[in-house]
């Protein structure tokens, strides 16, 4: 018997950890209509170790037009995040995908079960995430290339790729994302080599980015090219900034908890709503 979560007017963050995909389906069934004011405060969704999650359920993201942060972590069966799925996330600011060993494709549509015809109908719509400013990929060993929909995210400011060893190169259209201020490429095999300095193959696509770090070396800082020798040993600066940012986010989350922040944790963890 699966207990279906209920939403209150104060729910801002939902985190599912260590549960089966069936529970996520029940969560979708419990969501109020997309027009409901209950969803206007729902800004963060984190999915950790969801067993059997291949793609996101059809009915989930259309409800979450106010979602600002989406994180999918350690979902070993997760295979794709397509434009058809994320096109509804017009308020999304932060997207993080990490430790999903089967994620290799940005194609495919919603999970329509065995209905192949419906899946083909939702293959590749035009997609733009107008508010996206931070995109992070960690430990995605089968990921071959950046998503094509990223070229329309004109407000992207930070792009980070760690331990994505199958990535072979960066797209030329990256030069058109003028808002990007920071690029990190660490432990990405061939891609790291293609970004390592002014003579590297992909440098023409990233030279306009003010801050560039490759394999823990700062190659370019505040628009000033440092090269490999000058940048050696400085590669932890961005990591320190990230740590500070994460600490600030944790402190902010604690403040929200003290002031009426409501968080839902299902499965192995407790569930807590403040109404």
UniProtKB/TrEMBL annotation:
UniProtKB keywords: Plant defense
Tagged with keyword Chaperone: no
Biased composition (Acidic residues): 236-252
Top-level taxon of the source organism: Eukaryota
Domain Disease resistance protein At4g27190-like leucine-rich repeats: start-end pairs: 65-189
Region (Disordered): 226-256
Protein name in the entry: Disease resistance protein At4g27190-like leucine-rich repeats domain-containing protein
């Amino acid at each position: 018997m699966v207990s279906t979560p209920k939403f209150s007017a104060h729910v801002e963050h939902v985190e599912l950890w260590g549960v089966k995909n069936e529970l996520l389906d029940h969560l979708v069934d419990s969501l109020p209509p997309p027009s409901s004011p209950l969803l206007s405060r729902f800004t963060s969704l984190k999915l950790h170790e969801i067993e059997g999650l291949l793609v996101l359920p059809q009915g989930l993201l259309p409800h979450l037009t106010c979602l600002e942060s989406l994180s999918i972590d350690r979902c070993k069966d997760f295979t794709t995040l397509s434009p058809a799925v994320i096109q509804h996330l017009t308020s999304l600011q932060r997207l993080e995908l990490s430790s999903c060993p089967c994620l290799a494709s940005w194609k495919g549509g919603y999970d329509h079960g065995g209905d192949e015809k419906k899946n083909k109908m939702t293959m590749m719509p035009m997609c733009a995430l107008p508010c996206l400013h931070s995109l992070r990929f960690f430990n995605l060993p089968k990921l071959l290339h950046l998503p094509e929909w990223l070229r329309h995210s004109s407000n992207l400011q930070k792009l980070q790729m760690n331990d994505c060893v199958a990535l072979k190169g960066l797209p030329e259209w990256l030069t058109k994302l003028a808002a990007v201020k920071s690029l990190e490429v660490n432990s990405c095999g061939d891609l790291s080599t293609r970004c390592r300095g002014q003579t590297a193959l992909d440098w023409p696509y990233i030279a306009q980015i003010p801050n560039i770090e490759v394999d823990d070396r700062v190659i370019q800082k505040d628009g000033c090219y440092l090269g490999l020798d000058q940048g050696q040993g400085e590669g932890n600066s961005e990591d320190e900034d990230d740590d500070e940012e994460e600490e600030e986010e944790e402190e902010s989350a604690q403040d929200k908890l003290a002031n009426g922040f409501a968080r839902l944790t299902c499965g192995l963890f407790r569930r807590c709503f403040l109404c």
